[in-house]
Amino acid sequence: MIQFFNVSKLYPGGQTALADVSFEIPRGQFVFLTGPSGAGKTTLLKLIFREEVPSEGQIVVNGRNVSSIPRRKIPYLRRTLGIVFQDFRLIPRKTVFENVTYLPRILGRDGKTQKRMAYQALRRVGLAHRLNAFPLELSGGEQQRVALARALINEPEILIADEPTGNLDPELSAEILRLFLEINLRGTTLLIATHDRETIRRVGRRVLTLDAGRLTGDEELEGTDPPAVHAARPLFEDEDGLDSGDRGDETAAGADDPGADPGVAVAAGGEPP
Amino acid sequence: MTLRRALVYFLREAAVSLVRSWKVSLLAVLTIAVSLLIGGAFLLLAANLSAVVERWREEARVVLYLEPDSLTAERAALAREIAAAPWVTAVEEVGPDEAAERFRTAFPSLADLVDGGDHPLPPSVAIAFDPAAAGSARFEAWLADLGERPEVDLVDDDRDWLRRLGALVTLVRGLGLALSAVLLAAAVFTISAVIRLTAYLYQEEIAVMRLVGATEFYIRGPFYAEGVLQGLIGGLAAVGGLWLAWTATARRSAGTLLGAVLAPEFLGWRTVVLLVLLGAGAGLTGAVLSLRRERLGAA
Protein backbone atom coordinates (compact mmCIF):
# COMPACT_ATOMS: atom_id res chain seq x y z
CA MET A 1 0.00 0.00 0.00
CA ILE A 2 2.77 2.45 1.05
CA GLN A 3 6.38 1.48 0.50
CA PHE A 4 9.49 3.58 1.07
CA PHE A 5 12.76 2.26 -0.36
CA ASN A 6 15.88 4.05 0.95
CA VAL A 7 14.23 7.44 0.61
CA SER A 8 16.22 10.60 1.28
CA LYS A 9 15.11 14.17 0.95
CA LEU A 10 17.48 17.11 0.88
CA TYR A 11 16.09 20.61 0.66
CA PRO A 12 17.90 23.31 -1.30
CA GLY A 13 20.68 24.60 0.91
CA GLY A 14 21.67 21.10 1.91
CA GLN A 15 19.27 20.61 4.83
CA THR A 16 18.51 16.91 5.23
CA ALA A 17 14.83 16.26 5.93
CA LEU A 18 14.91 12.48 5.49
CA ALA A 19 17.84 10.11 5.27
CA ASP A 20 17.66 6.56 3.93
CA VAL A 21 14.14 5.84 5.17
CA SER A 22 12.62 2.45 4.33
CA PHE A 23 9.36 0.91 5.55
CA GLU A 24 6.19 -0.70 4.29
CA ILE A 25 2.62 -0.15 5.40
CA PRO A 26 0.25 -2.91 4.29
CA ARG A 27 -3.35 -2.32 3.31
CA GLY A 28 -5.70 -1.59 6.21
CA GLN A 29 -3.03 -0.84 8.78
CA PHE A 30 -3.23 1.99 11.32
CA VAL A 31 0.15 3.63 11.77
CA PHE A 32 1.35 6.52 13.88
CA LEU A 33 4.32 8.49 12.62
CA THR A 34 6.00 10.29 15.46
CA GLY A 35 9.10 12.21 16.35
CA PRO A 36 10.08 15.65 17.58
CA SER A 37 9.42 18.82 15.62
CA GLY A 38 11.69 18.96 12.59
CA ALA A 39 12.16 15.19 12.52
CA GLY A 40 10.79 14.99 8.98
CA LYS A 41 7.21 13.80 9.61
CA THR A 42 5.55 16.40 7.39
CA THR A 43 8.13 15.91 4.66
CA LEU A 44 7.46 12.17 4.70
CA LEU A 45 3.73 12.76 4.32
CA LYS A 46 4.30 15.29 1.54
CA LEU A 47 6.38 12.72 -0.31
CA ILE A 48 3.44 10.31 -0.23
CA PHE A 49 1.05 12.71 -1.93
CA ARG A 50 3.82 14.08 -4.14
CA GLU A 51 3.91 17.57 -2.79
CA GLU A 52 7.64 16.89 -2.54
CA VAL A 53 9.92 14.70 -4.63
CA PRO A 54 12.53 12.46 -2.99
CA SER A 55 16.15 13.30 -3.63
CA GLU A 56 16.97 9.59 -3.54
CA GLY A 57 15.04 6.35 -3.27
CA GLN A 58 11.64 5.15 -4.45
CA ILE A 59 8.15 5.51 -3.01
CA VAL A 60 5.28 3.27 -4.06
CA VAL A 61 1.73 4.22 -3.10
CA ASN A 62 -1.24 2.11 -4.16
CA GLY A 63 1.01 0.39 -6.67
CA ARG A 64 2.17 3.66 -8.23
CA ASN A 65 5.77 4.79 -8.07
CA VAL A 66 5.14 8.34 -6.95
CA SER A 67 8.82 9.26 -7.24
CA SER A 68 8.61 9.14 -11.01
CA ILE A 69 4.93 9.83 -11.62
CA PRO A 70 4.41 12.54 -14.29
CA ARG A 71 3.16 15.87 -12.97
CA ARG A 72 -0.11 15.59 -14.90
CA LYS A 73 -0.90 12.29 -13.15
CA ILE A 74 -0.44 13.62 -9.61
CA PRO A 75 -4.11 14.67 -9.30
CA TYR A 76 -5.22 11.11 -10.06
CA LEU A 77 -2.92 9.80 -7.31
CA ARG A 78 -4.33 12.30 -4.82
CA ARG A 79 -7.90 11.29 -5.59
CA THR A 80 -7.11 7.91 -4.04
CA LEU A 81 -5.85 9.57 -0.87
CA GLY A 82 -7.52 11.48 1.91
CA ILE A 83 -5.42 14.21 3.48
CA VAL A 84 -6.08 15.98 6.79
CA PHE A 85 -4.04 18.79 8.32
CA GLN A 86 -3.62 20.29 11.73
CA ASP A 87 -4.98 23.63 10.52
CA PHE A 88 -8.03 21.99 8.86
CA ARG A 89 -7.60 24.01 5.62
CA LEU A 90 -11.26 24.84 5.31
CA ILE A 91 -12.32 27.80 3.19
CA PRO A 92 -14.09 30.24 5.53
CA ARG A 93 -16.37 31.78 2.89
CA LYS A 94 -17.63 28.37 1.74
CA THR A 95 -20.26 26.36 3.56
CA VAL A 96 -19.56 22.97 5.06
CA PHE A 97 -21.24 21.40 2.03
CA GLU A 98 -19.07 23.37 -0.39
CA ASN A 99 -15.93 22.59 1.59
CA VAL A 100 -16.68 18.90 1.59
CA THR A 101 -17.68 18.55 -2.05
CA TYR A 102 -14.53 19.79 -3.78
CA LEU A 103 -13.65 16.36 -5.09
CA PRO A 104 -17.15 15.44 -6.37
CA ARG A 105 -17.22 18.80 -8.16
CA ILE A 106 -13.80 18.17 -9.65
CA LEU A 107 -14.99 14.74 -10.75
CA GLY A 108 -18.00 16.37 -12.44
CA ARG A 109 -20.62 14.71 -10.25
CA ASP A 110 -24.09 16.21 -10.58
CA GLY A 111 -25.63 18.21 -7.78
CA LYS A 112 -27.75 15.35 -6.47
CA THR A 113 -24.77 13.01 -6.27
CA GLN A 114 -22.70 15.72 -4.59
CA LYS A 115 -25.40 16.14 -1.93
CA ARG A 116 -25.62 12.42 -1.35
CA MET A 117 -21.84 12.04 -1.05
CA ALA A 118 -21.58 15.07 1.23
CA TYR A 119 -24.37 13.80 3.44
CA GLN A 120 -22.81 10.36 3.74
CA ALA A 121 -19.34 11.73 4.50
CA LEU A 122 -20.65 14.24 7.02
CA ARG A 123 -22.83 11.62 8.64
CA ARG A 124 -19.77 9.49 9.22
CA VAL A 125 -18.26 12.32 11.22
CA GLY A 126 -21.52 13.30 12.88
CA LEU A 127 -22.04 16.62 11.14
CA ALA A 128 -24.73 15.95 8.56
CA HIS A 129 -26.94 18.57 10.16
CA ARG A 130 -24.34 21.33 9.62
CA LEU A 131 -24.32 21.20 5.82
CA ASN A 132 -25.09 24.89 5.45
CA ALA A 133 -22.95 26.21 8.28
CA PHE A 134 -19.76 28.14 7.65
CA PRO A 135 -16.49 26.88 9.16
CA LEU A 136 -16.14 29.82 11.51
CA GLU A 137 -19.51 28.92 13.05
CA LEU A 138 -18.09 25.54 14.09
CA SER A 139 -15.89 24.51 17.00
CA GLY A 140 -12.31 23.34 16.36
CA GLY A 141 -13.36 19.71 16.70
CA GLU A 142 -16.22 20.19 14.28
CA GLN A 143 -13.94 21.92 11.79
CA GLN A 144 -11.54 19.00 11.94
CA ARG A 145 -14.47 16.63 11.42
CA VAL A 146 -15.48 18.61 8.34
CA ALA A 147 -11.90 18.34 7.07
CA LEU A 148 -12.10 14.61 7.75
CA ALA A 149 -15.38 14.37 5.85
CA ARG A 150 -13.74 16.14 2.92
CA ALA A 151 -10.92 13.60 3.02
CA LEU A 152 -13.36 10.69 3.22
CA ILE A 153 -15.87 11.75 0.62
CA ASN A 154 -14.41 9.62 -2.15
CA GLU A 155 -13.77 6.60 0.07
CA PRO A 156 -9.97 6.87 -0.13
CA GLU A 157 -7.78 3.82 0.18
CA ILE A 158 -5.30 5.72 2.32
CA LEU A 159 -5.92 8.49 4.81
CA ILE A 160 -2.97 10.69 5.75
CA ALA A 161 -3.19 13.11 8.65
CA ASP A 162 -0.58 15.63 9.73
CA GLU A 163 -0.96 16.48 13.43
CA PRO A 164 -4.76 16.23 13.15
CA THR A 165 -5.32 16.82 16.84
CA GLY A 166 -2.60 19.41 17.28
CA ASN A 167 -5.09 22.29 17.53
CA LEU A 168 -7.65 20.46 19.66
CA ASP A 169 -8.16 20.00 23.37
CA PRO A 170 -7.85 16.45 24.79
CA GLU A 171 -11.57 15.71 24.68
CA LEU A 172 -11.93 16.76 21.04
CA SER A 173 -8.69 14.94 20.19
CA ALA A 174 -10.17 11.74 21.58
CA GLU A 175 -13.26 12.28 19.47
CA ILE A 176 -11.20 12.69 16.31
CA LEU A 177 -9.09 9.65 17.17
CA ARG A 178 -12.22 7.56 17.62
CA LEU A 179 -13.26 8.63 14.14
CA PHE A 180 -9.88 7.62 12.74
CA LEU A 181 -10.13 4.24 14.35
CA GLU A 182 -13.64 3.75 13.02
CA ILE A 183 -12.48 4.68 9.55
CA ASN A 184 -9.63 2.21 9.86
CA LEU A 185 -11.99 -0.55 10.92
CA ARG A 186 -13.83 -0.02 7.64
CA GLY A 187 -10.64 -0.93 5.77
CA THR A 188 -8.92 2.40 5.13
CA THR A 189 -5.17 2.53 5.68
CA LEU A 190 -4.22 5.33 8.06
CA LEU A 191 -0.94 7.13 8.56
CA ILE A 192 -1.15 9.77 11.26
CA ALA A 193 1.76 12.05 12.06
CA THR A 194 1.77 13.27 15.63
CA HIS A 195 4.26 14.22 18.28
CA ASP A 196 1.74 13.46 21.02
CA ARG A 197 3.34 10.41 22.68
CA GLU A 198 0.56 10.21 25.25
CA THR A 199 -2.09 9.63 22.57
CA ILE A 200 0.07 6.98 20.93
CA ARG A 201 0.64 5.23 24.24
CA ARG A 202 -3.06 5.22 24.99
CA VAL A 203 -4.25 4.10 21.53
CA GLY A 204 -1.38 1.76 20.64
CA ARG A 205 -0.92 0.32 17.10
CA ARG A 206 2.13 0.45 14.88
CA VAL A 207 4.44 3.39 15.51
CA LEU A 208 7.14 4.68 13.18
CA THR A 209 9.57 7.04 14.87
CA LEU A 210 11.62 9.63 13.04
CA ASP A 211 14.51 11.55 14.50
CA ALA A 212 16.52 14.07 12.52
CA GLY A 213 15.23 12.55 9.29
CA ARG A 214 16.16 8.97 10.19
CA LEU A 215 13.73 6.16 10.97
CA THR A 216 14.79 5.23 14.46
CA GLY A 217 11.87 3.05 15.47
CA ASP A 218 9.22 0.74 14.01
CA GLU A 219 7.25 -1.05 16.72
CA GLU A 220 3.82 -2.40 17.57
CA LEU A 221 2.44 -0.93 20.79
CA GLU A 222 -0.37 -2.29 22.90
CA GLY A 223 -2.66 0.59 23.81
CA THR A 224 -3.10 1.30 27.49
CA ASP A 225 -6.56 2.82 27.09
CA PRO A 226 -7.84 2.42 23.52
CA PRO A 227 -11.09 4.23 22.79
CA ALA A 228 -14.07 2.01 22.08
CA VAL A 229 -15.24 2.41 18.53
CA HIS A 230 -17.89 0.86 16.40
CA ALA A 231 -16.90 -1.20 13.42
CA ALA A 232 -19.57 -0.25 10.97
CA ARG A 233 -21.80 2.61 11.96
CA PRO A 234 -21.13 6.28 11.92
CA LEU A 235 -20.76 7.80 15.34
CA PHE A 236 -23.19 10.35 16.75
CA GLU A 237 -26.29 9.14 14.94
CA ASP A 238 -29.95 9.61 15.84
CA GLU A 239 -32.44 6.82 15.94
CA ASP A 240 -34.12 7.96 12.74
CA GLY A 241 -30.85 7.81 10.87
CA LEU A 242 -30.35 11.58 10.77
CA ASP A 243 -27.70 13.10 12.92
CA SER A 244 -28.41 15.46 15.73
CA GLY A 245 -24.86 16.71 15.68
CA ASP A 246 -24.41 16.12 19.37
CA ARG A 247 -21.73 13.73 20.38
CA GLY A 248 -23.65 10.55 21.13
CA ASP A 249 -22.90 7.10 22.30
CA GLU A 250 -21.65 4.48 19.93
CA THR A 251 -24.97 3.17 18.71
CA ALA A 252 -26.25 0.14 16.90
CA ALA A 253 -25.33 -0.46 13.29
CA GLY A 254 -27.71 0.94 10.69
CA ALA A 255 -29.56 -0.55 7.80
CA ASP A 256 -27.42 1.24 5.21
CA ASP A 257 -24.55 -1.15 5.80
CA PRO A 258 -25.92 -4.65 5.46
CA GLY A 259 -22.49 -6.15 5.99
CA ALA A 260 -22.18 -4.61 9.41
CA ASP A 261 -22.46 -6.57 12.57
CA PRO A 262 -25.11 -4.65 14.52
CA GLY A 263 -24.34 -3.66 18.00
CA VAL A 264 -20.78 -4.92 18.09
CA ALA A 265 -18.30 -2.44 19.42
CA VAL A 266 -14.65 -3.12 18.73
CA ALA A 267 -11.79 -1.99 20.89
CA ALA A 268 -9.26 0.16 19.13
CA GLY A 269 -6.59 -2.40 19.74
CA GLY A 270 -8.40 -4.97 17.60
CA GLU A 271 -7.39 -5.97 14.10
CA PRO A 272 -9.07 -4.17 11.24
CA PRO A 273 -11.53 -6.15 9.14
CA MET B 1 -15.79 15.91 -15.95
CA THR B 2 -17.32 16.69 -19.33
CA LEU B 3 -16.08 19.74 -21.21
CA ARG B 4 -19.53 21.33 -21.12
CA ARG B 5 -19.80 20.93 -17.36
CA ALA B 6 -16.24 22.19 -16.94
CA LEU B 7 -17.01 25.31 -19.02
CA VAL B 8 -20.16 25.97 -17.01
CA TYR B 9 -18.12 25.62 -13.82
CA PHE B 10 -15.36 27.92 -15.13
CA LEU B 11 -17.83 30.61 -16.17
CA ARG B 12 -19.75 30.42 -12.90
CA GLU B 13 -16.59 30.67 -10.83
CA ALA B 14 -15.32 33.50 -13.03
CA ALA B 15 -18.60 35.40 -12.64
CA VAL B 16 -18.49 34.97 -8.86
CA SER B 17 -14.91 36.24 -8.82
CA LEU B 18 -15.82 39.24 -11.01
CA VAL B 19 -18.54 40.22 -8.56
CA ARG B 20 -16.39 39.48 -5.53
CA SER B 21 -13.49 41.63 -6.75
CA TRP B 22 -15.61 44.05 -8.74
CA LYS B 23 -13.38 47.09 -8.22
CA VAL B 24 -10.23 45.61 -9.72
CA SER B 25 -12.31 43.80 -12.33
CA LEU B 26 -13.88 47.11 -13.32
CA LEU B 27 -10.41 48.56 -13.77
CA ALA B 28 -9.48 45.72 -16.10
CA VAL B 29 -12.74 46.03 -18.03
CA LEU B 30 -12.32 49.79 -18.38
CA THR B 31 -8.76 49.54 -19.73
CA ILE B 32 -9.95 47.07 -22.35
CA ALA B 33 -12.99 49.21 -23.15
CA VAL B 34 -10.99 52.43 -23.53
CA SER B 35 -8.36 50.86 -25.75
CA LEU B 36 -10.97 49.23 -27.98
CA LEU B 37 -13.10 52.37 -27.99
CA ILE B 38 -10.19 54.44 -29.27
CA GLY B 39 -9.20 51.79 -31.78
CA GLY B 40 -12.83 51.43 -32.85
CA ALA B 41 -13.23 55.21 -33.23
CA PHE B 42 -10.24 55.36 -35.57
CA LEU B 43 -11.58 52.38 -37.50
CA LEU B 44 -14.98 54.04 -37.79
CA LEU B 45 -13.43 57.30 -38.95
CA ALA B 46 -11.20 55.51 -41.43
CA ALA B 47 -14.06 53.35 -42.72
CA ASN B 48 -16.30 56.35 -43.34
CA LEU B 49 -13.49 58.37 -44.94
CA SER B 50 -12.62 55.37 -47.05
CA ALA B 51 -16.20 55.09 -48.23
CA VAL B 52 -16.23 58.79 -49.13
CA VAL B 53 -12.93 58.53 -50.98
CA GLU B 54 -14.21 55.51 -52.83
CA ARG B 55 -17.39 57.34 -53.81
CA TRP B 56 -15.38 60.34 -54.97
CA ARG B 57 -13.03 58.06 -56.83
CA GLU B 58 -15.94 56.72 -58.83
CA GLU B 59 -16.96 60.27 -59.66
CA ALA B 60 -13.40 61.43 -60.41
CA ARG B 61 -12.78 63.36 -63.61
CA VAL B 62 -9.80 64.57 -65.54
CA VAL B 63 -10.01 68.15 -66.77
CA LEU B 64 -7.82 69.28 -69.65
CA TYR B 65 -7.27 73.06 -69.55
CA LEU B 66 -6.57 74.22 -73.03
CA GLU B 67 -4.53 77.10 -74.37
CA PRO B 68 -6.63 80.28 -74.18
CA ASP B 69 -6.24 80.92 -77.89
CA SER B 70 -7.38 77.47 -78.94
CA LEU B 71 -10.15 77.52 -81.49
CA THR B 72 -13.64 76.29 -80.92
CA ALA B 73 -13.29 73.84 -83.77
CA GLU B 74 -10.09 72.47 -82.30
CA ARG B 75 -11.77 71.97 -78.93
CA ALA B 76 -14.70 70.20 -80.54
CA ALA B 77 -12.37 67.91 -82.50
CA LEU B 78 -10.42 67.10 -79.35
CA ALA B 79 -13.63 66.35 -77.46
CA ARG B 80 -14.81 64.01 -80.22
CA GLU B 81 -11.48 62.23 -80.25
CA ILE B 82 -11.56 61.79 -76.49
CA ALA B 83 -15.15 60.52 -76.50
CA ALA B 84 -14.10 57.75 -78.91
CA ALA B 85 -11.82 56.17 -76.26
CA PRO B 86 -13.41 52.97 -74.80
CA TRP B 87 -13.08 53.96 -71.12
CA VAL B 88 -14.57 57.42 -71.50
CA THR B 89 -18.13 57.64 -70.20
CA ALA B 90 -18.74 61.37 -70.78
CA VAL B 91 -16.98 64.40 -72.23
CA GLU B 92 -17.93 67.96 -71.53
CA GLU B 93 -16.44 70.83 -73.41
CA VAL B 94 -16.49 74.13 -71.53
CA GLY B 95 -15.71 77.36 -73.36
CA PRO B 96 -14.25 80.48 -71.70
CA ASP B 97 -17.62 82.22 -71.46
CA GLU B 98 -19.30 79.26 -69.82
CA ALA B 99 -16.36 78.83 -67.44
CA ALA B 100 -16.72 82.47 -66.38
CA GLU B 101 -20.46 82.00 -65.91
CA ARG B 102 -19.92 78.92 -63.74
CA PHE B 103 -17.43 80.82 -61.64
CA ARG B 104 -19.91 83.65 -61.10
CA THR B 105 -22.57 81.13 -60.02
CA ALA B 106 -20.24 79.28 -57.66
CA PHE B 107 -18.57 82.36 -56.18
CA PRO B 108 -20.92 85.36 -56.54
CA SER B 109 -18.90 87.52 -54.19
CA LEU B 110 -15.84 87.11 -56.40
CA ALA B 111 -17.70 87.67 -59.65
CA ASP B 112 -15.77 90.85 -60.43
CA LEU B 113 -12.65 88.78 -60.88
CA VAL B 114 -13.98 87.41 -64.13
CA ASP B 115 -15.98 90.43 -65.22
CA GLY B 116 -14.62 92.64 -67.98
CA GLY B 117 -11.52 92.21 -70.05
CA ASP B 118 -10.58 89.20 -72.13
CA HIS B 119 -11.48 85.72 -71.10
CA PRO B 120 -9.58 85.19 -67.81
CA LEU B 121 -10.59 81.53 -67.51
CA PRO B 122 -9.26 79.07 -70.05
CA PRO B 123 -11.46 76.70 -72.02
CA SER B 124 -11.45 73.12 -70.86
CA VAL B 125 -12.56 69.58 -71.60
CA ALA B 126 -13.80 67.52 -68.65
CA ILE B 127 -13.52 63.77 -69.04
CA ALA B 128 -15.49 61.20 -67.00
CA PHE B 129 -14.26 57.62 -67.27
CA ASP B 130 -14.91 54.11 -66.13
CA PRO B 131 -13.17 53.78 -62.72
CA ALA B 132 -12.44 50.12 -63.45
CA ALA B 133 -10.34 51.03 -66.47
CA ALA B 134 -8.57 53.91 -64.75
CA GLY B 135 -5.13 53.01 -63.56
CA SER B 136 -4.45 50.60 -66.39
CA ALA B 137 -1.24 51.19 -68.31
CA ARG B 138 -3.13 51.93 -71.53
CA PHE B 139 -5.33 54.50 -69.79
CA GLU B 140 -2.36 56.23 -68.17
CA ALA B 141 -0.43 56.28 -71.46
CA TRP B 142 -3.45 57.71 -73.24
CA LEU B 143 -3.80 60.41 -70.61
CA ALA B 144 -0.08 61.22 -70.82
CA ASP B 145 -0.40 61.58 -74.60
CA LEU B 146 -3.29 64.00 -74.14
CA GLY B 147 -1.16 66.08 -71.79
CA GLU B 148 1.52 66.34 -74.44
CA ARG B 149 -0.84 67.78 -77.07
CA PRO B 150 0.05 71.37 -78.04
CA GLU B 151 -3.48 72.67 -77.43
CA VAL B 152 -3.47 71.28 -73.86
CA ASP B 153 -2.02 73.66 -71.31
CA LEU B 154 -2.65 71.76 -68.06
CA VAL B 155 -4.06 68.41 -66.94
CA ASP B 156 -5.99 68.42 -63.67
CA ASP B 157 -6.52 64.82 -62.51
CA ASP B 158 -8.94 64.42 -59.53
CA ARG B 159 -7.22 61.16 -58.73
CA ASP B 160 -4.08 63.00 -57.63
CA TRP B 161 -5.72 64.53 -54.54
CA LEU B 162 -7.85 61.45 -54.01
CA ARG B 163 -4.62 59.48 -53.79
CA ARG B 164 -3.37 61.91 -51.14
CA LEU B 165 -6.68 61.64 -49.28
CA GLY B 166 -6.48 57.84 -49.50
CA ALA B 167 -2.98 57.99 -48.01
CA LEU B 168 -4.36 60.16 -45.20
CA VAL B 169 -7.10 57.61 -44.51
CA THR B 170 -4.49 54.86 -44.37
CA LEU B 171 -2.46 57.00 -41.99
CA VAL B 172 -5.52 57.58 -39.77
CA ARG B 173 -6.28 53.85 -39.75
CA GLY B 174 -2.65 52.98 -39.02
CA LEU B 175 -2.41 55.54 -36.24
CA GLY B 176 -5.61 54.22 -34.73
CA LEU B 177 -4.44 50.63 -34.88
CA ALA B 178 -1.01 51.51 -33.44
CA LEU B 179 -2.56 53.53 -30.61
CA SER B 180 -5.08 50.80 -29.99
CA ALA B 181 -2.34 48.16 -29.94
CA VAL B 182 -0.39 50.13 -27.34
CA LEU B 183 -3.49 50.63 -25.20
CA LEU B 184 -4.49 47.01 -25.64
CA ALA B 185 -1.04 45.95 -24.45
CA ALA B 186 -1.61 48.11 -21.37
CA ALA B 187 -5.01 46.46 -20.94
CA VAL B 188 -3.44 43.00 -21.19
CA PHE B 189 -0.96 44.05 -18.52
CA THR B 190 -3.78 45.31 -16.29
CA ILE B 191 -5.81 42.13 -16.72
CA SER B 192 -2.72 40.10 -16.02
CA ALA B 193 -2.21 41.96 -12.74
CA VAL B 194 -5.88 41.61 -11.80
CA ILE B 195 -5.89 37.88 -12.49
CA ARG B 196 -2.70 37.44 -10.47
CA LEU B 197 -4.34 39.29 -7.61
CA THR B 198 -7.42 37.10 -7.88
CA ALA B 199 -5.23 34.00 -7.87
CA TYR B 200 -3.58 35.33 -4.72
CA LEU B 201 -6.99 35.82 -3.10
CA TYR B 202 -7.92 32.25 -3.98
CA GLN B 203 -4.62 30.61 -3.09
CA GLU B 204 -6.00 28.81 -0.02
CA GLU B 205 -8.83 27.34 -2.01
CA ILE B 206 -6.53 26.43 -4.88
CA ALA B 207 -4.24 24.63 -2.43
CA VAL B 208 -7.20 22.60 -1.17
CA MET B 209 -8.32 21.81 -4.71
CA ARG B 210 -4.81 20.70 -5.57
CA LEU B 211 -4.66 18.46 -2.51
CA VAL B 212 -7.92 16.70 -3.29
CA GLY B 213 -6.85 16.01 -6.86
CA ALA B 214 -7.83 18.91 -9.11
CA THR B 215 -6.01 19.04 -12.44
CA GLU B 216 -4.20 22.13 -13.73
CA PHE B 217 -7.00 22.55 -16.29
CA TYR B 218 -9.60 22.60 -13.54
CA ILE B 219 -7.59 24.99 -11.36
CA ARG B 220 -6.60 27.44 -14.08
CA GLY B 221 -9.84 27.28 -16.09
CA PRO B 222 -11.78 29.78 -13.94
CA PHE B 223 -8.94 32.32 -14.19
CA TYR B 224 -8.81 32.01 -17.97
CA ALA B 225 -12.59 32.33 -18.07
CA GLU B 226 -12.36 35.42 -15.89
CA GLY B 227 -9.89 37.02 -18.31
CA VAL B 228 -12.13 36.19 -21.26
CA LEU B 229 -15.19 37.56 -19.45
CA GLN B 230 -13.40 40.80 -18.58
CA GLY B 231 -12.31 41.14 -22.21
CA LEU B 232 -15.78 40.37 -23.54
CA ILE B 233 -17.42 42.88 -21.23
CA GLY B 234 -14.76 45.45 -22.13
CA GLY B 235 -15.30 44.79 -25.84
CA LEU B 236 -19.08 45.09 -25.53
CA ALA B 237 -18.71 48.28 -23.49
CA ALA B 238 -16.39 49.71 -26.17
CA VAL B 239 -18.82 48.89 -28.97
CA GLY B 240 -21.72 50.27 -26.94
CA GLY B 241 -19.84 53.47 -26.14
CA LEU B 242 -18.76 53.86 -29.73
CA TRP B 243 -22.32 53.42 -30.96
CA LEU B 244 -23.61 56.03 -28.52
CA ALA B 245 -20.88 58.48 -29.57
CA TRP B 246 -21.56 57.82 -33.26
CA THR B 247 -25.31 58.27 -32.79
CA ALA B 248 -24.78 61.60 -31.01
CA THR B 249 -22.31 62.78 -33.67
CA ALA B 250 -24.61 61.73 -36.50
CA ARG B 251 -27.55 63.53 -34.90
CA ARG B 252 -25.62 66.74 -34.29
CA SER B 253 -23.95 66.85 -37.69
CA ALA B 254 -26.94 65.72 -39.75
CA GLY B 255 -27.05 67.61 -43.05
CA THR B 256 -23.54 69.02 -42.70
CA LEU B 257 -20.42 68.15 -44.63
CA LEU B 258 -18.92 66.77 -41.41
CA GLY B 259 -21.88 64.48 -40.96
CA ALA B 260 -21.74 63.39 -44.57
CA VAL B 261 -18.04 62.65 -44.37
CA LEU B 262 -17.55 61.32 -40.84
CA ALA B 263 -20.72 59.69 -39.69
CA PRO B 264 -22.78 58.22 -42.48
CA GLU B 265 -22.51 54.62 -41.29
CA PHE B 266 -21.60 52.67 -38.14
CA LEU B 267 -19.07 49.85 -38.16
CA GLY B 268 -20.11 46.68 -39.96
CA TRP B 269 -21.13 43.69 -37.82
CA ARG B 270 -17.93 41.86 -38.71
CA THR B 271 -15.83 44.70 -37.30
CA VAL B 272 -18.05 44.83 -34.21
CA VAL B 273 -17.61 41.10 -33.63
CA LEU B 274 -13.88 41.48 -34.26
CA LEU B 275 -13.62 44.24 -31.63
CA VAL B 276 -15.46 42.15 -29.03
CA LEU B 277 -13.36 39.08 -29.83
CA LEU B 278 -10.24 41.22 -29.67
CA GLY B 279 -11.28 42.17 -26.13
CA ALA B 280 -11.84 38.52 -25.22
CA GLY B 281 -8.49 37.61 -26.75
CA ALA B 282 -6.73 40.35 -24.81
CA GLY B 283 -8.37 39.11 -21.61
CA LEU B 284 -7.34 35.53 -22.26
CA THR B 285 -3.80 36.64 -23.12
CA GLY B 286 -3.60 38.58 -19.86
CA ALA B 287 -4.80 35.56 -17.88
CA VAL B 288 -2.40 33.18 -19.61
CA LEU B 289 0.52 35.55 -19.12
CA SER B 290 -0.31 36.10 -15.46
CA LEU B 291 -0.44 32.39 -14.64
CA ARG B 292 2.31 31.25 -17.00
CA ARG B 293 4.97 30.99 -14.33
CA GLU B 294 2.69 30.70 -11.32
CA ARG B 295 2.61 27.48 -9.35
CA LEU B 296 -0.90 28.08 -8.11
CA GLY B 297 -1.71 27.00 -4.61
CA ALA B 298 1.51 25.11 -4.08
CA ALA B 299 1.91 24.17 -0.44
- CATH class membership of chain A: Alpha Beta
Major β-sheet strand ordering of chain B: 2-3-1-4
- Approximately what portion of the residues of chain A adopt beta-strand conformation? 25-35%
Radius of gyration of chain B using CA atoms only: 31 Å
Per CATH, the architecture of chain A is 3-Layer(aba) Sandwich
Percentage of residues in helical conformation of chain A: 25-40%
Q: How far is it from the N-terminal to the C-terminal residue of chain B, by CA?
A: 25 Å
Tell me about this structure:
The complex is a heterodimer of chains A (273) and B (299). Chain A has helices spanning 41-48, 74-78, 96-100, 102-106, 111-124, 140-152, 170-185, 197-203; strands at residues 2-10, 16-25, 30-34, 56-61, 64-65, 81-85, 158-162, 189-193, 204-211, 214-222, 228-230, 265-267. Chain A is α/β, with parallel strands linked by helices. In chain A, the strands form 3 sheets. Chain A has a 6-stranded mixed sheet with strand order 6-7-8-3-9-10, with helices on both faces. In chain A, strand 1 and strand 2 form a beta hairpin. In chain A, helix 5 (111-124) packs across helix 6 and helix 6 runs parallel beside helix 7. The longest helix of chain A has 16 residues, at 170-185. Chain B is α+β, with helices and mostly antiparallel strands. Chain B has helices at residues 3-20, 22-58, 72-83, 96-106, 137-148, 158-201, 203-212, 216-252, 257-262, 269-291; strands spanning 61-66, 88-94, 124-129, 152-157. In chain B, helix 8 (216-252) runs antiparallel to helix 10 (269-291). Chains A and B meet through helix 2 and helix 4 of A and helix 1 and helix 7 of B.
Notable features of this structure?
A: 273 residues, alpha/beta, 6-stranded mixed sheet, 4-stranded antiparallel sheet, globular, B: 299 residues, alpha+beta, Alpha-Beta Plaits, 10 helices
Topology:
The complex is a heterodimer of chains A (273) and B (299).
Chain A: E1 2-10, E2 16-25, E3 30-34, H1 41-48, E4 56-61, E5 64-65, H2 74-78, E6 81-85, H3 96-100, H4 102-106, H5 111-124, H6 140-152, E7 158-162, H7 170-185, E8 189-193, H8 197-203, E9 204-211, E10 214-222, E11 228-230, E12 265-267
Helix pairs in contact in A: 5-6, 6-7
Chain B: H1 3-20, H2 22-58, E1 61-66, H3 72-83, E2 88-94, H4 96-106, E3 124-129, H5 137-148, E4 152-157, H6 158-201, H7 203-212, H8 216-252, H9 257-262, H10 269-291
Antiparallel strand pairs in B: 1-3, 1-4, 2-3
